[in-house]
Specification:
By secondary structure, the protein is α/β, with parallel strands linked by helices. The protein has a single domain (13-244), classed as Vaccinia Virus protein VP39 (Rossmann fold), CATH 3.40.50. The chain is 33% helix and 24% strand. It is built from seven helices and eight strands; from the N terminus they run H-H-E-H-E-H-E-E-H-E-H-H-E-E-E. The protein has an eight-stranded mixed β-sheet with strand order 3-2-1-4-5-8-6-7. Helix 5 links the parallel strand 4 (130-136) and strand 5 (156-167). The longest helix has 21 residues, at 34-54.
Length: 245
């Protein structure tokens, strides 16, 4: 339906501009993006479990992504791209904000990691398909979620694995993720728009309609003394894996 050459712009321009301004501070664990540094190990633990469950023999390998193409959509400055590269993946990171890509490229070079970073929307880039597609904390910034997921799923190779995370739309997330977190400076003001959050059921329905099957869903919760951790409590944030149905 329609012209195949027409790409839908799904990321709001003001969202891309907002994160561009933060690019220089991405890699400072005590800076404005400190919350990302705290949640990143939790996400990576889920991603490693998903990899081990998806590919036979992966659990015994130090580099389970060796020989596999990996796409990190909304890569920011590379906080997920770099550990994925260390797991052996041939990583491509895509972000709508050119400054984020510049920050990511500079940091990867300093770390001696060979990661391909590209600025733009995933639908408008001729980059092929990937064995593993990661898209964390992006869909809540997207205007047309159905169109965006169609573009994401189009990048998934047959037999591929998709991992995505996003805040849940609950009373708790409205108070804690949007209200309190911004008030105390845990995340920069304007990071979250609660009405754009989606629930796990809504997300799963979107993925099923896109031809995928959800294989695991975990909450990312917080409690005193333990901090952020994977949990059955999905009221604030959750992460899921999926494969083609």
């Amino acid at each position: 339906m329609g012209n195949a050459n027409v790409s839908n712009v799904t990321i709001r321009p003001e969202e891309a501009d907002f994160f561009s301004k933060l690019a220089q501070d991405w890699w400072n664990p005590k800076g404005k993006m400190a919350s990302l540094h705290q949640v990143n190990p939790v996400r990576m633990a889920f991603i490693r479990d998903a990899i081990d469950a998806h590919w036979p023999g992966a659990a015994t390998q130090a580099k389970p992504l060796a020989g596999k193409a990996v796409l990190d959509i909304g890569c920011g400055a590379g906080l997920a791209s770099e550990p994925l590269a260390r797991l052996g993946g041939a990583v491509t990171g895509v972000d709508a904000a050119a400054q984020n890509v510049a920050a990511a490229s500079a940091h990867a070079e300093g770390m001696g990691l060979d990661i391909r970073y590209m600025a733009g929307e995933v639908a408008g880039l001729d980059i092929g398909t990937f064995d593993l597609v990661i898209c964390v904390e992006v869909i809540e910034h997207v205007a047309d979620k159905r169109a965006f997921l169609r573009d994401v799923v189009a990048r998934l190779s047959p037999g591929g694995l998709l991992v995505m995370s996003t805040p849940n739309r609950t009373a708790a997330s409205r108070v804690l993720l949007v209200g309190a977190a911004e008030a105390v400076g845990y995340v920069p003001r304007g990071t979250h728009h609660w009405e754009d959050f989606i629930t796990p059921d809504e997300f799963e329905n979107l993925l099923v309609n896109a031809g995928l099957t959800v294989t695991a869903t975990r909450g990312i919760a917080w409690r005193p003394g333990k901090g952020l951790h994977l949990s059955d409590d999905k009221s604030l944030n959750y992460i899921l894996s999926a494969r083609r149905a």
